[in-house]
Amino acid sequence: MAKRKLTQAEMPVADHAFYGLVWAGTVLTERVDRALSKAHDLPVSWFEVMLWLASSPDPVPASVLGNSTMLSRSQVSRVVDALQSRGLVTRTPSARDARSVEVSLTPEGHQLFEAADATRRACLAPVFTDLLDQQDLEALSTVWQKLKANKEG
């Protein structure tokens, strides 16, 4: 008997949408991770932390990084340790809370982030951003906002 794939028509739309979300996240993340590791010796988890740091005008409390990224707090701590050992971030005591530290990119960290972000964008363009128009991107953004707004549900 010949093997065949199920078609979208044979799968409930909610199941197909969820599978597509998982597929896209897995495939695109693996693609970006390979490109960043090859070009910059920078795993995607490190890039994610750097992205949040680069997006903030002020140093970011370590606890906020744990709440913002898709990493656990212990993973964030290990990533920040690794980034600090490479001279890409600094930790400073918080002026607002003596028990907490704040993390920021060093000048070298900003420079590496800019290069890595260009690599990420170039890597994703042919398989993501070049395939989608502004309306598609806005629709995806709306979907993510709805899902994230109810993440505890």
Notes on the structure:
The chain has 153 residues and is mostly helical. It has one domain (22-133): Arc Repressor Mutant, subunit A, CATH 1.10.10. The chain has six helices and three strands. It has a three-stranded antiparallel sheet with strand order 1-3-2. A hairpin with a 7-residue loop joins β2 (89-93) and β3. The termini are far apart. The relative contact order is 0.11. It comes from Streptomyces glebosus. Residues 1-149 form the HTH marR-type domain. One of its GO terms (molecular function) is DNA-binding transcription factor activity.
The stretches of 5 or more residues where confidence is low (pLDDT under 50) are: none
Computed over alpha carbons, the radius of gyration is: 19 Å
Please name the CATH architecture. Orthogonal Bundle
* Strand content bin: 5-15%
The CATH class turns out to be: Mainly Alpha
Question: Averaged pLDDT, please?
Answer: 90
The percent of residues in helical segments reads 55-70%
Name the overall outline: elongated
Number of helices: 6
At the fold tier of CATH, the topology name is: Arc Repressor Mutant, subunit A
Number of domains: 1
Brief digest:
With 153 residues, this protein is mainly alpha-helical. It has helices at residues 13-40, 44-55, 62-68, 73-85, 107-124, 134-149; strands at 60-61, 89-93, 101-105. Residues 1-149 form the HTH marR-type domain.
